[in-house]
Amino acid sequence: MVAWARRKDTQRVFQSAPYQEAPTPPMTSDIFKACERAVHVVTNDGRVLKAGRATLFVLERVGWGWFARLLSYPPLVWLVEIGYWIFAHGRSFFALFMFRGDKDD
Each residue of 60-81: pLDDT tens digit? Predict the structure, then answer.
């Protein structure tokens, strides 16, 4: 997913790093533990978004605009979070079919 987001980030607004190598700050011990279970985004204003909400934040900025914003409102965001949970817990299964050519740096 990170490799896909990098390719779509034509404006180069994102910086990505494996959580094990993220600088402190913004990395905290609480965020470090949570990063084992879900992707996190730290915004310029210091907000920490995780899982589905982090994914929607990235999607909005790489061209999904209004659609990602629409999905960020309840009850749709709850469905996004459930979908994220299913995808994250079935990562090895879904990797057989999706993102086959993507390699995270």
Answer: 988 888 999 999 999 999 999 9
pTM of the model: 0.76
Which of 28-37's residues contact partners 24+ apart within 8 Å by CB, and which partners? 37/88
Return the closest-CA partner of residue 4 out of 48, 64, 93. 64
The angle at the Cα of 39, spanning 34 to 42, to the nearest 5 degrees, equals 85
Read off the DSSP letter of residue 56. H
CA distance to 27, 28, 83, per residue, from 33 (Å): 10, 9, 21
Read off the pLDDT of residues 9-49 as tens digits, 9 standing for 90 and up.
788 878 787 888 887 877 888 888 888 888 888 888 888 89
CB 102 within 8 A of CB 4: yes
